[in-house]
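PROTOCOL LOG
Step 1. Enter all chains and additional molecules of the complex.
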Amino acid sequence: MQLLVFLLKRLGWMLITVWVVFTLSFFLMRAIPGGPLNGERVLSESVRAQLEQRYNLDDPLFVQYTTHLWNTICFDFGPSYKLQDFTVNEVLAQGFPVSAALGILGMTFALLLGMTAGVVSAVCRTSIYDFSFMLLATLGIAIPSFVLASMAIVLFVFYFQFFPAAGWGELKQIVLPAMCLGAPFAGYIARLTRTGMLEILSNDYIRTAYAKGLSTRTVILRHALRGSILPVVSYLGPACAGILTGSLVLEKIFAIPGMGSHFIEAALQRDFTLGMGALLTYTVLLYVMNTLVDLSYSIIDPRVVLE
Amino acid sequence: MIVIQCPLLISVRSNIFRRWVSKLVRKFFPLLILLALLGAVVWAVSMGTLPRADFVFNNGAEIKTMDPAQATGSPEGRVINALFEGLLRSLPAGEPDELGRIPMKPVARGMADRFTVHADGTVYRFHIREDARWTNGDPVTATDFAWSWMRFLHPETASEYNYQLFYVRGAEKFNAVQLAVGDKVEVELADRETPELFPRGTIRRGILRELILPLPTEGTAETDVADDVAAISGKAIFIVEFQTESGNTSAKETIAYAVSADGSLAGIDELKQTYTGDFPLADIQPCKHVLYDFNEVGIQVLSPQDLEVTLNSATAFFPELVAFYPLHPVHRGCVEQYGARRFTKAEHIVTNGPFRLKERRIRDRIRLIKNEQYWNAAEVELDSIDVMSIQSETTSLNMYLTGQLDWDTTPPNAMLPILKKRDDFVSTPFLASYFYRINTAKPPLNHPLVRRALNLAIDKRSIVDNVVKGGQTPADSFVPPGMNGYQGYQGSGQNVKRARELLAEAGYPNGKGLPQIEILYNTADSHRDIAEVIQQDWKKNLGINVVLRNLEWGSYLDSLQTGDYMVARSGWIGDYPDPNTFLDMFVTDGPNNQTSWGNVKYDNNIKMAKREADPAARMQLFVEAETILMEEQAIMPIYFYVSKNMVQPNIQGFYANLQDIHPLHLIKIRREGSATHDAISEDTN
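Step 2. Run joint prediction.
Step 3. Record the structure below.
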């Protein structure tokens, strides 16, 4: 019951958020100079009039707003202005899985690497491992992903020739972008895990576990790890947002046809409908991810109460 | 869902069973997450993989559409030229010039296997080859072209390039709905099945007997022409007389129509009041369109194989236009069945070119495969092509350097000094100009002497040699050199002394009293570097203070169009090798003019050149026009572009040319050990 109320509440807030985002961006998009029908080659008067009619751009702004809002409620984002052969729904349907695949791989990489490094650093505190892992983590956080990507390309594409330079369609093409995407998050996660672990390890119940004669491995993996990943879990929400925005840049560098590419191009080309579609998808996605993180937090730690 | 619900219910009501479930969930939750992640990774990895095509190239931007009638731009052109084929095809023909460029000529090696020109160059008869086939097996006929061109010209299609066919008799009248009383018209009744254009509703053909317009302009023959906007938005009443045949008797029927997009006739009540004629307007019928009868337009189907095109006047470059991709035909059945947007889907599209569409991934690639039905399929060597749309120039170059691309169309400018030393860098001057527009409405730039002084003070040679460094040539004229029979305006190059004199003559000795000038450019390092040189030149040579303003592309275009600039960086790529494609731009109030500049003599020359049949006299008209443009200095040419292509050494059939057009069906891959052969001789005979 409590869960249901929690989910309904979240849903309600999400709808309000989406509406606010929709309204704000609808009017902001139209407030900036330029429009979807502007091109290097200027349209003749009659062609412009016809195209405005085709896309309902000749209606008063408020009518456009209500029409667009109603269509959005019906999950119809309309035709893309700049990809005339597609509707926005089709573009998103093609772009979303690509970004999702990239994001999931990046996140998996970040979690695996970060948590391993964090645990090792905490257990072997002040050792050379601890020192070097934490140095790497700091570097990972400090270096922007596009710099990292450029270095990775020079190293692994031109010098060692392990991976292709860019593109999408093969497994080995995903590796570099996913690693570059995950690296800063791996850094954060490593630090969070290390701090959490150190705190847990000083607890009485860990001493008890050792006193019972359990091996270090069992103590760490079964008793300490669970408590120490709580900060990591709560970090996953912001991390999802970071992965989403981080992939905007990386998708361009690695020529990946994901949501980020569509979103940036839509903004630059004033493709209002596609921009709106991508923006709302991002909003919903972030909201859902945050809700899931809250849910899983309460599962891991029973003391947390959802409200 | 259940898994998540249980532990929470527990926290409210505690009983042993639920606590046990909760414990279980907590225990397996990390495992579950791990499994979910693993599943997601497997799914992510299994995302459709596609092996490399025979030939892969970067097309630059993602194409806007594959519909020939809607497309503009060279990336679109590359794809549409591979998928579709017009009556003629521009192919390399003849000997290379001194720069190694092979001229491109529109020849009858497209859908037409021959064409003849009659009546002093105003009538073209095209004969379509018997073995021309659509990919669904239908023969390609003259009717396909007539229908496709009708669609291209139809106002609702809103084709940006539609003016390319305005040289055809009656075409502009049809497109712009310029109707006069007595014209034959076609009325599209309001009975379309879908709101989409094509299929159209029922078409009735009759004669326009009366035209009622909102403005009090009726009465005189000259002004009795419907304004296209009025017709579209339903502000006019058309009284049309039809000849109806029933059995042996023929009767006349007259109906009043109003054009209405949605069937409502709200806008015309006022019009009815002003009408003083005797035709009863009691029941005006809504209709979709009243257009000039397309049967009257100079596009006539003589037989399934023969198409006759009648022009307004002899137009020397008409074959170039016929070979240009917007005039490529589309399959009527396909368009009518699936509608304007969906007919371009890989599973629907019917094409007639050397390649067919296999798959399209948005902002990734377009996979083309060889069309075995193509009339000349024997000579098409590539079985598959990947047309990549990689936005980042650096990424694209990386992919080329690591062998992922065979042809890179967008090497970054910053790399040109290094790249141009390589053998696989193919670069020649082509039909494109880099220039600065001057807003002649803004003082002090409204003074021609000031504009000329500004132009003379720029060291264009230094810009080309020290800034762009890609082998471009400094420009003193707007039209790039190299077009047959056109000797453009000859400028004097930099002349600081003369520039100072002119400025003094204009009333600003040593730049005194001259307000600050602002240079607008779209955000890019290459444009900024040039703008900085010009800023220095003007400051140093003329004592003018210059500020730079950069805007992102969309805002920059908006500033240009609204005239919110003083001096703005611009570029123009010619559509066909004729001065008209450049000079046509700057006629008074032309949509692409954007400088507020206008000159009656200039306009006149351009208009006369459209009608002039004698090539030499025509070119003379253009030279005069360009001289006016340059002496009034509405624009400042900076340099002529060079084409930039990186082409792998094992690629053959790639010819440098003036238009930077590279037909994909001529491209061959030299396999190891196979003898090199000259592909030109067999492809263009």
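Step 4. Note key features.
Chain B touches chain A through 76 residues (CB under 8 Å).
Residues 1-14, 217-226, 674-685 of chain B have pLDDT under 50 and may be disordered.
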